[in-house]
Amino acid sequence: MPRRTPRNALDRVRTSRRLFGFLKTASVCVLTAALLSPLTQTGATAAETTAANDHCGGQCSDILPPGENGNATLAQILLNQAFGTQPAHAEDQLGPYADLATGYPRLTDATINTFFDDASFGVPSDQVASTEKPAGRGDVTIVRDKKTGVPHITGTTRYGTEFGAGYAAAQDRLWLMDVFRHVGRGRLTSFAGGAPANQGLEQQFYRNAPYTEADLQAQIDNAVAKNGARGQQALADVKAYLDGINAYIDASDSGRYFPGEYVLTGHKDSITNAGTIEHFKVTDLVALASVIGSLFGSGGGGEVGNALSLMAAQAKYGVEEGTEVWESFRERNDPEAVLTVHNGESFPYGAKPADAKGEALPDAGSVTQEPLVHDRTGSAGTATAGNTSAAAARTTLSSARRGMSNALVVSGKHTASGHPIAVFGPQTGYFAPQLLMLQEIQGPGISARGASFAGLSMYVELGRGQDYSWSATTSGQDIIDSYAVELCQDDYHYLYHGTCTAMEKVEQKNAWKPTVADGTAAGSYTMRAWRTKYGPVEYRATVGGKKVAYTTLRSSYLHEADSIIGFQMLNDPDFVKGPEDFRSAAQHINFTFNWFYADSQHTAYYNSGDNPVRASGVDAEFPVWAQPAYEWRNWDPATNTADYTPASAHPNSVDQDYYISWNNKQAKDYTTASWGDGSVHRGNLLDDRVKKLVAAGGVTRTKLVAAMADAGLADLRAEDVLPRLLKVVNSSPVTDSTAAAAVGKLQAWVTAGAKRTETSAGSKTYANADAIRLLDAWWPLLVKAEFEPGLGSDLYSAFTANLPIDEAPSAGHGPTGSHAGSSFQYGWWSYVDKDIRAVLGENVRGGPARKYCGGGSLSACRDTLISTLKQAAGLTAAQVYPGDDQCSAGDQWCADSIVQRTLGGIKHGRISWQNRPTFQQVVEFTSHR
To answer: Cα separation of 326 and 306, whole Å?
Structure first.
């Protein structure tokens, strides 16, 4: 059966699957003549833009595939679908990005910008492609460069600057922005079509943030009110930004060069131009922010799932030993985990309490998931639609959230120049158009270049200032708790501080019909969420025989707009002048991120997020009773505010020898919500390489980029676990010919570097292809054979629900999904590593509560590994890589390949697998103000 590829939430957006039939209609010729290009901009006659206070000395670079231009007219979409032609700057960053995978061994400082783009401020006069005064304004200019078409926005007034930012954003991402303002409100199917993928996406986000329009408005009102002058400035910036977006909507509508997806989805008529593109408003940006915050900045959740696996462990082993086994798999504070702050400093958070209080574990077999979707009609009632809803719920309720992103930062003490070097960026997946967009903004109180999420680009969110740069990775510390509210009267009333209180019903009704873009048959449904003061209801169960609803409360709920102040500060050159100012800005961001900073003298790190101060004795891993004794300290349900841990309690550091992050554990004693922070983590791939560079000294941009690229091709299992598996296998001579041949191939791969890399650029064939196939086939077999006999099927299944066993590049079952690049974030590699080392008799800190492979017998463990290896060797490539909507069965390279998932009408080709940030900076500042 073909594997279902789009497992990530964003991979599911579908807007232009059935265009080829449309290409055959008689209207194409007319449309091509009328809609081929938007109105031309002013010619490239402007002088060189001012490179104000650029202290990078030509040593700042960045890249963001596939390209800056994410808008396409109808004719451009049709030509792309028919002939593969690309609009200007739609994919000119994809090739250089892809080429690094084979080009990094020959990299030099002089050739870095072969694979990246110059991120200096301004545009040289001979590189100006166009100059524009948006809407005829005299206080802002948008210059685009010839190479990439990135907008360089320069304003003489604050209003004009932000107007220009909004105008440029709409020029480059209008359709995408429109899609996501509908996603944030749970209205995607009514807007873009009823494909099951679209149903799943809107359901995922509506379950997480079932906001009303009043909720969205209150967010911006509260953010402005509590931040004084900066809050008022943020509101003014947002309004100017919206004015710019709406000015472009009007201009493109009247000029008929708006994105062609509006025609394909039935919102505009290609002949008469009838129909409207709705203007954007303030609450649209809050809806957009809620989507981004939910995707990348909301650590936690999974407490009910944790309770179920704990109960399974206790049922298997008894309460005491079962709890010990559970804790050994949870790895809350594993002493062998790779750390970002590695100087030994402790930042206690989320530790297991000595005497847990208020736990509300469900009665066995009583847990049911709260249904979200009701009143299905038409295509919404199919089995496929039902399966999509179930998958969306699993994604939302799990603690295994999309993390990604990495950072490598080295102090100037260890570089050749004496200046810090950073290679960092967010790993936000691969989409067409990309979720992020590049820009430079120069105006009163703003001076920055970098990436921002489309529709939120009033400020640069990840990038560089005049003499400093910053970036982020997802951190995942726990800011989400589950409460058991005791029901009263009926299933829709609960006890709040002793009073029977009605739940609030929030609904969103959606209906769709077939369009050119999405031929899904007509259908409809209603999404219905029940909200309590403790957050939305996610499950129902009984606890000690009492009927309860389990709710989910996160500290950023109703507060996604708050972070705007932190981003405003990061863009302000008068605010950020050093690492302490950077940390102060990051403290105003309530999303769970790891923030990194570099200037010409210093490096710094800070972990952001509103970490609630929990009541004494509350274990954040499990649901607790919704009673005053177990609420967050000084929690106000009306505003969802509470006491939060102080900035000094968040992992932070200045001028450590180096920092790495790949969504690993932040610091000693700091617990993250997701499972898997153990002895083997993909963060080790960075840490091992950077540690060697720092020990040798003389680090350069070339060396640090190469370390990142090398780690980005490594198979974590092969580099850090396979050698010990082979040690067990080779503990006695391997006499079976099939097993011996497999061992020989695996050992040769390890010796060659354990990478998944092409034989040569563009070959679409892996070196060591047989060994890679063997490990891909062997891993799930060996994990199950190693652990299930000892754990039993019930507990093994419960633990695999907490943490997937694998996330290889070709795997479609992890939270990231196939063809998404990001790999090896979630898996059982640490469990296998620790267990195998224990069986070998090696020292294991924080080892398993018991030995599993072969029941602890080396010879029996060896037999298990050899038998599963032989089983893996018998599987064909077509069985290991069964094919999907992108690849034929057995095509190993294609199964791993990265696909720019279409969120609009333009398609791009596949590129070879790399495990690296989507947007990436390489920075080395040479001076400071």
So the answer is: 9
